[in-house]
Amino acid sequence: MGEGHLPVLVDEVVTSLAVGPGSSVADCTVGGGGHAERLLEATSPDGRLLGLDADRAAIAEAERVLARFGGRVTLVHANFESLYDVASEAGALPLDGVLFDLGLSSYQLADASRGFSFAADAPPDMRFDETAGVSVNELIERSTERELAGILATFGEERRAGRIAKAIVAAREAGGRMTSAELAAVVARVAPSRPGGADAGRIHPATRTFQALRIAVNREVEVLSSGLAGALAALAPGGRMAVISYHSGEDRIVKRFIARESRDCIEDPLPPVCTCGHRAQLRAVTRGVITAGTDEVRRNRRARSAKLRVAEKLAFERTARGGPST
Ligand SMILES: C[S@@+](CC[C@H](N)C(=O)[O-])C[C@H]1O[C@@H](n2cnc3c(N)ncnc32)[C@H](O)[C@@H]1O
Q1: Cβ of residue 80 lying under 6 Å from some atom of ligand 1
Q2: Domain range annotation of the chain
Q3: What class, spelled out in words, does domain 10-106+220-313 have in CATH?
Q4: Is 304 left (phi over 0), alpha (psi -120 to 50) or beta?
Q5: For residue 199, what pLDDT band results from cuts at 50, 70 and 90?
């Protein structure tokens, strides 16, 4: 499958999920199987791992890497938005641990035919699941300048969204289909890094554009929210979920989900007497986020932007005053 993929924050994930022999664990983004391998070792000799990935090539790679664990592993080509149903069909419920390691793998980035990389000499596809939805190429062909600008502003927090969208539409009208490398060059031409700016020379000027288009075609915001809700429903009381995100938009969704599910009343402002009926089901295990140390970042560039959050499903439903309900 090309170059190797080093799992990010792997010791921190295994320790904070606190799984052991006999545990039932779901790796919702099994990828090249790096985290899964360590989780299977930690749950040896009889723990089970359910691995999901939206990418068929990732499932094939995970099958190869995890073959030595035999019947302890079930791999399913699926989007993690259907985690609960997949886990139910696999007989894996309730789960003691759930991991999401979001985004794309080094394998996907290195495969030029997928178009994830700024250097790829192929049309930008950027779908995790090449059998579903529309590619970035199709999205660019179908969208108006205004729609493209909206995507770049919303999912990429790109301040120069309007200028970039205009240039992409002009390039599309002049020359038809672009490769990823050509798309990156169009963006760099109209929105170059500012000389002397904080990101100059470190981050490609098309980073936010590529991120936004990838998030749009993979419906990443929507599926992450469904995936987290599915994980909460699938966890056993006392079970834990760990989420590694790589950009602020993703981390915000995770942070807000954990905050909301850790509260009893979710009315805003808080009324004197709660009428919403919402009850806390989670507690945050990590204070803030866990990030990679300098040694790991030196070994693995992907680790530099990683943020890990961990939460535990409460062993009982609390009443509004914090005690167990009867
Ligand atoms: C960062 S990689 C995971 C690497 C893995 N932890 C390892 O150690 O090898 C992310 C993986 O998640 C998959 N993915 C992204 N979004 C997904 C989704 N909504 N459902 C299922 N898989 C998804 C990608 O296809 C990719 O293989």
Answers
A1: yes
A2: 10-106+220-313, 130-217
A3: alpha beta
A4: alpha
A5: low
Q: Which ligand 1 atom is the nearest neighbour of the CA of 220?
A: 19
The DSSP annotation for 102-115 comes to -S--HHHHH-GGG-
Q: What's the rounded mean pLDDT across residues 232-249?
A: 96
101 pocket-lining for ligand 1 (C-beta < 6 Å): yes
Closest-lying ligand 1 atom to the alpha carbon of residue 129 = 25
Q: Which CATH fold would you assign to the domain 130-217? A: DNA polymerase; domain 1 (1.10.150)
Run of H or E including 309: strand 307-313
Question: Ligand 1 pocket, 303 CB below 6 A?
Answer: no
Convert the pLDDT of each residue in 269-296 to its tens digit.
Answer: 888 888 888 899 999 998 889 999 999 9
Residue with the smallest CA separation from ligand 1 atom 27 is: 31
pLDDT one-digit tens code per residue, 117-127: 998 899 999 99
33 close to ligand 1 (CB < 6 Angstrom): yes
The residues, ordered by sequence, that sit 6+ positions from 254 with a Cβ below 8 Å of its Cβ are 224, 228, 243, 245, 309
3 state DSSP class of 10: helix
pLDDT at 229: 97
pTM above 0.70, yes or no: yes
